[in-house]
Specification:
Layout: H1 3-11, H2 16-34, H3 43-59, E1 83-85, E2 95-96, H4 99-112, E3 120-126, E4 129-136, E5 139-145, E6 151-153, H5 156-159, E7 178-186, H6 189-201, H7 210-218, H8 223-228, E8 232-239, H9 248-257, E9 267-269, H10 272-285, E10 293-300, H11 303-309, E11 319-323, E12 328-340, E13 345-357, E14 360-366, H12 370-376, E15 383-387, E16 395-399, E17 426-427, E18 434-435, H13 443-454, H14 466-474, H15 489-492, H16 500-512, H17 518-524, H18 532-542, H19 545-550, H20 553-557, H21 564-575, H22 577-588, H23 597-602, E19 611-615, H24 623-632, E20 636-638, E21 645-650, H25 656-665, E22 669-671, H26 672-678
Parallel strand pairs: 2-11, 19-20, 19-21, 21-22
Antiparallel strand pairs: 1-6, 3-9, 3-10, 4-5, 4-7, 7-8, 10-11, 12-13, 12-15, 13-14, 13-18, 15-16, 17-18
Bound molecules: 2-(butylsulfanyl)adenosine.
C-alpha cells in the first residue's frame, strides 16, 4: 500500500459510495443539459459537485473509472492516435444535388422492392465528422473516425469529453450487449463563434467553418483542448446483433431513450411529395438550427427492406444524400500555376483544396490576369471565397484576410518569363492579358493552334485528337497546321505498320478537310479575336483571302460586327511574314481561301438586318443548317426573344415558356415550310 493510500484509508475509509453517488448525479445533470437542453442546477452547484468528485478520485486512484464524468474535462495525458479497423466498414452515401435524382432514387427503391409499400426516414445531413462509437455492456469502449472507411483513428479519449455522448447507458435499457452507433461530431455555431472571437482577440488565425474546427479539435493530441471547445454530436445509425427495432426510425427512438442525442428533425415520409416537402422545409429551416447541415439524408425505414435492397461497392442502395447547393464556398489556395494558351495569353490558375460547389467538386479557379491577382492581394495559404457564377470555370470572389496567420504563405506574384519556353512575357497597352510573344516556337501555342485548327467548328478533323497532335509534334512530324497536309500514312502506322487502318483514316480525315468552306478556314487560322461569327462576316464581305489581306483597318471596320480590336488584330496577323507564308502553304495544300460559287450564288439579302430566334425540332434541316441559311440571306440568328426579334422560326416541341413569351411580345411565329418559302428554297 502506498503512503497516500494508507492516509486515505484512515481519513476516508469508504469513499466509494459518495463517488458513485456523485458520478450518477453528474451524469444525470450532464444528460439533461447536453442532450435535453435543460439546466437542473446552477453552474456553481455543478462545479462544486464536479470538484468534490475530482478531489475524491485523486485521493483514491483505486476508484479510477474511465467513464467517470470527470474524464470529460480531459486529462493531460497525450499520445498519438492508434489506427484501428472498423467492425463494420463505414460506407459513404450516394450524393445528389437535384430533385430529379431524388425521384430516380425513389423509383429505384420502388422497383427494388417490387411494389411493396415502404417508408422513407428523412433526416438532416449534419456537416461535421463521422464517428463510430462502440458500446460493450452499456459502456463506451471505442470511438473511431471514419478514416478511409475500413480503418480510422481511435479518438476515444477526445470523444469522452463530449458531454452529449453517453459514457454509460442507463441500466435495464433495451440496448444489446454489443452494438455500434454512428453519428456526426459537430461544433455548434455558438461554440464556433465563441472560439473564433477568442482567436481573434489573441491575434490567431480564424477557423474557416465548424467542420474544420470540429475536425481539428477531435484530432488534437491534448484532450483538454477537446474538452474546452464545446463539441456536440448527433447520432443517426444503429448497428449490431439484437438491436431492438425492426425499423431505422424505431431504433433511433430507442437510442434516444438510452441517452443518445438524435436529430429532432427526423420524420417519416410515405410518398415522394412528402420527401420534397421535407426538403423544402429544411432547405429554408436549417438556418435556425444550432449546428451546420449540408443536406438531407433519405433512408428506407424497414431494416428487412434495407437488407433486401443491399449495397453497391461504395454505398447502400437504401439511402441517398440530397445536398443543398452551395453557391459559394470557402477553400484554401495552395498553389498558382500559369497556363499558356494558343494565342500566347498566360492565364494564372488557382489550385485549391477540393470543395463541393453547385453540384461538382472544384479544385481550380481562374485568376484572370495580373491585375486581378494584385487587386485581390492573394497569398498562398489564403482562405478564398469561390463561386461558380454563370460559367463553368469557377471564380475567386474574395479573400478571408481575417483568417491569415503564421500559416499564410508569400503573396502571389505574376511570372515574368513564359513557363513553357522561357521567353520574357509582354503586356500590350490597354490589354489586361500578359502574353508570351514567342508564337512561332512556344510549344503550347503551336499545339494549341493545331488543336484549334482541327476542332469541330473549324476544320473538323475528328480523326485527330490532342494526344495524336502531341505525339506528332514530339516526333517532329508537324510544326504547324500546314504540315498536317504533308503527312503520309506510313509515318503514322507504327513500326511494322500495325496501325495502318487508323493511319489511313487519319489521312482521309485530313484530306476531307480540304472541302471545308472559306469562312471556317478563316476561323481555323486562329487569328486573335476572330471567332466564328467574325470569320463568317469577313469571309462574306471580302469573299477571298487576297482581298482580306489587302484590306485596311478602316475597310474592315465597315463590316457589320467588326470593330477596332478585331480589325487591328486581322491587319497585324496578315502583315506577319510567317502567317502569309502559312496561308500560301495551306493554299497549295488545296484549302479553300474563297467563297464557293454556290455560296456566292446562295447569298442574298432577303433577311438583311433581321434577328431571328430558332426553337424546337425540325424535319427538313437541322438547327445548324437553319442557322447557316439565316446567315446566308443576311439575317442574324439570336438566342433569346426580345421586341427586336423579327420572327421566331418554330419547329416541333417548342418549350411552352418560349411560346408564351413570343405571344406576349406579339412576335410572328414562322414554321419550317413557311421559312423555306421565304428564302425561295421549297
Ligand atoms: S447515414 C450507411 N445519416 O454524411 C449510412 N450520414 O456520405 C451511413 N452524415 O459519411 C450514413 N448526416 O458522415 C447518415 N443523418 C445522417 C447523416 C450522415 C451526416 C454524413 C456521414 C456520412 C456522409 C455521407
Amino acid at each position: 500500500m502506498s503512503q497516500q493510500q494508507i492516509l486515505n484509508f484512515f481519513s476516508d475509509p469508504d469513499p466509494r459510495e459518495e463517488i458513485d453517488e456523485l458520478r450518477r448525479e453528474l451524469n444525470r445533470l450532464n444528460h439533461a443539459y447536453y442532450v435535453d437542453n435543460r439546466s437542473l442546477v446552477s453552474d456553481q452547484e455543478f462545479d462544486q459537485m464536479m470538484h468534490r468528485l475530482q478531489t475524491l478520485e485523486a485521493a483514491h486512484p483505486e476508484c479510477f473509472d474511465p467513464d467517470s464524468p470527470t474524464q470529460r474535462v480531459g486529462s493531460d495525458l497525450s499520445g498519438d492516435f492508434r489506427t484501428v479497423e472498423h467492425s463494420n466498414p463505414m460506407l459513404s452515401l450516394a450524393n445528389t444535388y437535384n430533385r430529379r435524382e431524388v425521384g430516380d432514387f425513389y423509383r429505384r427503391v420502388q422497383d427494388g422492392l417490387h411494389g411493396q409499400p415502404f417508408r422513407i426516414c428523412c433526416e438532416m445531413k449534419y456537416d461535421g465528422l463521422s464517428i463510430s462509437l462502440i458500446y460493450d455492456h452499456g459502456r463506451l469502449t471505442r470511438a473511431v473516425t471514419r478514416g478511409d472507411g475500413v480503418r480510422g483513428d481511435d479518438v476515444t479519449r477526445n470523444i469522452r469529453t463530449i458531454r452529449s455522448i453517453p459514457l454509460v447507458l442507463p441500466p435495464g435499457g433495451s440496448w444489446p450487449p454489443h452494438f455500434e452507433i454512428r453519428g456526426e461530431v459537430l461544433m455548434p455555431w455558438e461554440s464556433f463563434n465563441r472560439l473564433n472571437s477568442e482567436r481573434e482577440a489573441a491575434g490567431e488565425p480564424l477557423l474557416a467553418n465548424p467542420r474544420n474546427a470540429a475536425s481539428g479539435t477531435l484530432k488534437s493530441k491534448d484532450p483538454r483542448v477537446a474538452a474546452s471547445r464545446g463539441l456536440d454530436a448527433r447520432l443517426y445509425y444503429l448497428i449490431g446483433e439484437g438491436i431492438p427495432g425492426e425499423s431505422h426510425y424505431d431504433n433511433l427512438m430507442a437510442a434516444r431513450e438510452w441517452g443518445f442525442k438524435i436529430g429532432g428533425e427526423m420524420q417519416l415520409a410515405d410518398s415522394l411529395e412528402e420527401i420534397y416537402e421535407y426538403i423544402d422545409r429544411w432547405d429554408a429551416g436549417r438556418a435556425s438550427l444550432p449546428v451546420a447541415t449540408d443536406g438531407i439524408v433519405l433512408k428506407v425505414n424497414s431494416l428487412v427492406q434495407q437488407r433486401s435492397l443491399g449495397l453497391t461497392a461504395k454505398s447502400p442502395r437504401w439511402a441517398i444524400a440530397y445536398k443543398f447547393q452551395a453557391e459559394e464556398q470557402e477553400t484554401v489556395l495552395r498553389e498558382v500555376t500559369f497556363q499558356v494558351g494558343r494565342t500566347g495569353a498566360v492565364t494564372p490558375v488557382a489550385n485549391m483544396d477540393p470543395v463541393p460547389l453547385s453540384g461538382t467538386t472544384v479544385r481550380r479557379a481562374t485568376l484572370n490576369n495580373a491585375d486581378f491577382i494584385r487587386e485581390m492581394d492573394l497569398h498562398l495559404g489564403d482562405t478564398v471565397r469561390v463561386i461558380k457564377g454563370g460559367e463553368i470555370i469557377p471564380k475567386i470572389i474574395g479573400v478571408r484576410t481575417d483568417l491569415r496567420g503564421p500559416h499564410t504563405g508569400a503573396p502571389v506574384t505574376f511570372i515574368t518569363r513564359c513557363p513553357e519556353c522561357g521567353t520574357p512575357l509582354v503586356r500590350f497597352e490597354g490589354e489586361a492579358a500578359t502574353y508570351c510573344p514567342n508564337s512561332a516556337l512556344c510549344p503550347p501555342q503551336i499545339k494549341g493552334r493545331i488543336e484549334h485548327f482541327i476542332s469541330r467548328k473549324a476544320m473538323n478533323i475528328d480523326s485527330l485528337g490532342p494526344e495524336t497532335v502531341d505525339d506528332l509534334w514530339q516526333r517532329g512530324l508537324i510544326h504547324d497546321v500546314a504540315d498536317l497536309y504533308l503527312l503520309r500514312a506510313d509515318q503514322l502506322s507504327g513500326e511494322d505498320g500495325e496501325r495502318m487502318k487508323s493511319a489511313q483514316k487519319l489521312i482521309r480525315g485530313i484530306g476531307q478537310s480540304r472541302e471545308v468552306p472559306f469562312e471556317r478556314v478563316l476561323f481555323a487560322l486562329g487569328i486573335r479575336f476572330v471567332g466564328e461569327t467574325a470569320a463568317k462576316s469577313l469571309a462574306r464581305a471580302f469573299r477571298n483571302i487576297d482581298a482580306l489581306m489587302a484590306a485596311t483597318a478602316d475597310e474592315l471596320c465597315r463590316v457589320d460586327g467588326i470593330g477596332g480590336v478585331i480589325a487591328g488584330s486581322v491587319v497585324s496577323w496578315m502583315a506577319d511574314a510567317h502567317n502569309r507564308q502559312l496561308v500560301e502553304r495551306l493554299r497549295r495544300a488545296g484549302l479553300r481561301f474563297e467563297l464557293s460559287g454556290e455560296q456566292l450564288e446562295a447569298q442574298s439579302s432577303l433577311l438583311a438586318g433581321q434577328s431571328i430566334v430558332i426553337s424546337g425540332v425540325f424535319a427538313r434541316h437541322s438547327r445548324d443548317e437553319y442557322k447557316a441559311l439565316i446567315e446566308q440571306h443576311g439575317g442574324k440568328n439570336v438566342g433569346s426573344l426580345s421586341k427586336n426579334t423579327a420572327f421566331l422560326l418554330a419547329g416541333e416541341n417548342m418549350g411552352p415558356a418560349k411560346l408564351e413569351k413570343a405571344g406576349k411580345l406579339g412576335l410572328r411565329i414562322v414554321g419550317e415550310d413557311e421559312f423555306l418559302a421565304m428564302i425561295g428554297e421549297e
